Amino acid sequence: MLAVFLLPACNKMLDLRDNGTTDMSQVFSDRNMTRGYINACYNYIVGTNLRVGSFTDDAQDAQAITAGTNYDYWYNQTLNASNFGSHNFDGDPWTQLFQGIRKCNVFLANIGESTAKMTEQERQAWSAQAKTLRALYYMQLVKRYGGVPLLTEDLGTDHDYSTDSRASVGDVINQILTDCDEAIAIPDSEDYSYVYGDGQWGMMTKAVAQAIRAEAATYAISPLFSDSGFDKQRALTIAADALANLLSHGYSLWTRSSATSSAYALYHLTNPNDNRAVDKETIYGGYRVAPWSECGVPIVAGTTTAGSCPTQELIDAYEMANGQPAITGYSDAAHLQPIVNTASGYNPEKPYEGRDPRFYDSIFYNMSKRGGAYINTYVGGTCGISSTNIRYTCTGYYMRKFAADGSNRNSNQDGYLRLMRLTDVYMNFAEVAYQVAGPYQNVSGVNMSAADAVNAIRERAGMPNLPSGLSASEFETRYRNERRVEYAFEMDRYFSLRRWNVLSDNAKQVTGMRITQEGSKYTYTRFAFDPRQTAESKYLLYPINITELNKMTKLTGNNWQNPGW
Hints:
Blueprint: H1 24-27, H2 31-40, E1 59-61, H3 70-76, H4 84-87, H5 94-111, H6 120-145, H7 169-185, H8 206-220, H9 232-248, H10 263-269, E2 282-284, E3 287-288, H11 291-294, E4 308-310, H12 312-317, E5 327-330, E6 338-340, H13 357-362, E7 363-364, E8 368-370, E9 373-375, E10 398-399, E11 416-417, E12 420-421, H14 422-436, H15 450-461, H16 472-486, H17 492-499, H18 503-506, E13 511-518, E14 521-528, H19 546-556
Antiparallel strand pairs: 1-4, 2-12, 3-11, 5-6, 7-10, 8-9, 13-14
């Protein structure tokens, strides 16, 4: 669904030889074919989807009760290397991403000697696009598989694969950074700069390269890859530089609101493809989704399923509007006994009052409203909880984020999922900064601290600053919770739990809220779902596809499979 909009080019059909192939010298002697080839390099980006929250502790999917669905497998069965890709939210993209890397390698190997009609500026810009794409593909591989083979040349058809090996995470990240640095270093031009122009939506830019740099620095020193050998001070310099460059080139957090929507809600409802007329936060990607249908409420005709139903753990993550955590943890393994922060003002008998504004923008809860209609999630209500009907919530909550009140089967007005935004770079800088310099120390180059970066996100949401004087561990807790709330139902949580190496601590047990009504009084009872089977340590990394694994084991004599698979 995140198919890239190709650059404008009149790509003529390739003239094939008798054996059905085209000689690369022919491709790179023709301008249209050359542009067509760089366009083709874009076809391998791995995106996200609206239901990714159901693969995290943010949501329990209503369709888990249907045997054989992805969610049934994800919650109730033990996956293996053969069926993992069939039941994971983004499949098994190992082959796809290496196909993209190969395309970029072929392009970079030939563009320097290309005789096609182009300016030197175009040659540099197209090369920069290919390097940024290659960096993106390797970043997507590292997040999923850890260390992978590092291929930066056109291997041709006679490469000796028996000599290949998996590079370390540190080596792959160094290559990612090299590609980004070389791409950013070229002079700005119409085909590669910090912004995209008319007809260039989906094109690689220097802003994308900066976002990749910040993410790479975050992963390089993450707990999951603590043995990468990456210098932490260097990681901080990279993350700070990336944020500073984006801010100095016109990127800023969305702060526009409307009479009916907060800035946070309106951002997620607005089409980012506006040539940066209004949206100066989105860095890359954005496609419309339809939560009204696949994560909808049953009072809307045509809704197919309640989809990703928010868990009580996600509800508990939202602070009070005064900035105090409402729930600080659980005193039992089943999460049925929350530890209430009595100083926060949280009232268990009125659990939805006075919460972080993002709660109201992201969650349909009992007696909230969609347009003029109430969402009654209590037992027997019009949107009441159910354990047998996929159109009704299984947790006591529905997803509101991305959903427009007026959407229905006749008119989808719902919002857009992004792949990269400035928020990511703020957060990634903060993550590196608090680990290296502490929460409150100003970092040179960007002139802000980790706390300043997080507070910028909170300010946009209408939340007060984090308190001063937090220890590093206290700040880490608040930072990680902030990330969860800001990115609710987005892809971030899925990979953050893995990067922090805390999957088993968070993703195993989730709960819901059963509400009963007696007169005007509501009774709130937490209940637990069965523990999930996909929180073991082996799920920190994807398994390598069995077909690919068998090929490389046969060729190299080494088993490349990730631990536990």
